[in-house]
Write a structure and sequence with these properties.
Elements lengths: L9 H13 L4 H20 L27 H31 L16 H11 L3 H5 L12
Length: about 150
């Protein structure tokens, strides 16, 4: 903050990034901060305040793109299963109230599902929890992909 824009250069930002890294900041956070500064400096170049972008050619720090794999503990899994069951019951009760509303108005009632699940969400979450399938794999799953005998 105490340097004129004309004094900014790649060496200065590299030393700043090194200091941020030593202070415990993650590379992704440092890259985000640098991107904000680069956007400001790009505006300064557009407005004619700077002749050239001082960080031209600066490469972002390498980051882990795989993310963090996390599993539900027993308490979280029980909580999720309970929330899904409560949601199914709420949806069932809403359908019953809706049919009562229709009956008063002499309209055709919608069928009540006899299955334990009110819609697709509960089974999809259960399959995801028990198989580890990714979202796109779940959404593209077909019965021919499922072998219940071989599990």
């Amino acid at each position: 903050m105490n340097k004129p824009l004309s004094d900014l250069n790649t060496w200065l930002i590299e030393s700043w990034r090194k200091g941020q890294s030593e202070d415990g900041k993650k590379p992704k956070t440092i890259n985000r901060d640098v991107q904000r500064l680069q956007a400001l400096l790009s505006k300064a170049v557009d407005w004619g305040v700077l002749d050239r972008h001082p960080f031209h050619g600066l490469k972002p720090l390498k980051t882990d793109r795989t993310g963090r794999v996390r599993y539900l503990n027993a308490e979280e899994e029980a909580s999720l299963r309970g929330a899904l069951s409560r949601r199914d019951e709420i949806l069932r009760q809403a359908r019953i109230r809706f049919n009562e509303w229709h009956a008063v108005r002499h309209r055709r009632a919608l069928p009540l599902r006899g299955e334990p699940y009110a819609d697709h969400l509960h089974p999809v979450v259960l399959v995801a929890m028990n198989t580890g399938l990714r979202r796109s794999e779940l959404f593209h799953l077909r019965w021919e992909d499922v072998d219940l005998d071989a599990r």
